[in-house]
Amino acid sequence: MEEGKSDRRNLDHMTMPKPRRPWVAVLLNVLTPGLGYLYAGYPRLAAIACCLGYTSILVLIAAWLLIPSAPLNIVLGLIIGAGTFCSLLTHSAILASHQPKAFEPRWYNRWSVYLGYYLLLGLLLGNVLSTEVRRHFEAFRVPSGSMTPTLMIGDFIFAYKPKDSTRLAWDGAVVIFTSIEEPGLKVVKRVMGVPGDTLAMVAGVLSRNGKPMVESYVLLGDPKHSEEAKYRLKMREWQIPHLIGVDTSTYQPDIEDWGPLVVSADSVLVFGDDRDHSYDSRYYGFIPVTSLIGAPRVIYFSVENDTVGAVTRGLRWSRIGRRVE
């Protein structure tokens, strides 16, 4: 008799109504999109919310990359991403608050189901999606001024990384590549020559295949020929095997006068837009196409720093959302 009473008490305890708390729904949705809906008693909405949560991230990236107008691309992307996320949190909290206090948990309102949902859709699916996003897109911070005015110190850029690096090797493309001098160091410059191009510079004017180039993106300073001798020697050593129609015995290149030389196969020649203050291919030579990583597409954030880059003075609103061209 006593044993039967104990069983009934245990059964009553297992089916005891448990009210849904809005803050718990919000917290679970923060943990994994849709989990708060499952807690609130809406499994179908949980699946929809999970899809919306992850899709909004892709839409945000697409808005940044595809919409040409700044800052509409950034603003619209943030509205879609942050708006979707906040809407899901708010909606799940409202649904949880509207559930009766006598809410009876269903089979899916168990910690084991929540844990499985989190592991499968939060960790596993989330990790797969984030891995794919990182494989094709990456964020960088510009640490030097060699690409001024196109890119400035304090610019935060979002770059596209194609599977085939040869897609980045075209004249005028701003590219990110792995340094051939410091393994692991990522550098951003502009492609000025592709395989087979003949390049030369005379009195600071760059010509490609015999035609002077109009470079509206270049920041020109005062012509100078005061580089240290070691840098001039460095230029001479790598350029000599690629020169055409030049007496190599008397060849003495400097930052304003060098070439003509031919770009090797499967390589590119890259320069900085701040032409007189850029350490680039003129000094260290060709960059293998296989070293190209990606192409900056948009400046998603920008801050102004002091001269040593240690103190942030403020936001550069006019640069946020600007496309990198």
Strand content: 15-25%
H/E element order: HHHHHHEEEEEEEHEEHEEE
Instruction: Determine the N-to-C terminus distance.
Output: 84 Å
> In terms of per-residue confidence, which ranges show pLDDT below 50 for 5 or more consecutive residues?
1-14
User: Rough shape?
Assistant: elongated
Structural class: alpha+beta
Q: Summarize the biggest pleated sheet.
A: 8 strands, antiparallel
Put simply, the count of helices is 8
Q: How many individual β-strands? A: 12
Indicate the percent of residues in helices: 25-40%
Chain-averaged pLDDT: 87
> What's the alpha carbon Rg, rounded to whole Å?
29 Å
Give a nutshell description of this structure.
With 325 residues, this protein is α+β, with helices and mostly antiparallel strands. It has helices at residues 2-14, 22-31, 35-40, 43-66, 72-98, 111-136, 229-239, 281-284, and strands at residues 137-141, 155-160, 174-178, 186-193, 198-202, 205-208, 211-212, 258-262, 267-271, 287-288, 292-305, 312-315. It starts with a helix and ends in a 10-residue tail after the last strand.
